[in-house]
């Protein structure tokens, strides 16, 4: 599996402490019957803290771009990652 780093967001949490989050696209292969196709997932990691990831979300590069833009635009953290992903799917 390869990881394509996108961006780091630095944000204050509820108490005002500054936290940094790294956003990445995960690139792997997925078997689809007798064929293999490139699959994409996403990962959010708090520097020095929690992380959340979801491999094999889609085989569409355009769709993973949409999802990664959504995560970045809304500053999704590892805590809310799976709820946002479930709504997006």
Strand content range? over 45%
Determine the number of helices (DSSP H or I, runs of at least 4 residues).
2
Sheet with the most strands, sense and barrel status: 4 strands, antiparallel
Helix content class: 10-25%
What is the 3D form?
elongated
User: N- to C-terminal separation?
Assistant: 22 Å
The radius of gyration over CA amounts to 14 Å
Query: Average pLDDT across residues?
Result: 93
> Helices and strands, in N-to-C order?
EEEEHH
Low-confidence stretches: none
Describe the structure.
- With 89 residues, this protein is an alpha+beta fold.
- Helices cover 24% and strands 52% of the residues.
- It contains two helices and four strands, in the order E-E-E-E-H-H.
- It has helices at residues 61-73, 81-88, and strands spanning 2-12, 18-32, 35-46, 51-58.
- A four-stranded antiparallel β-sheet has the order 1-2-3-4, with helices on one face.
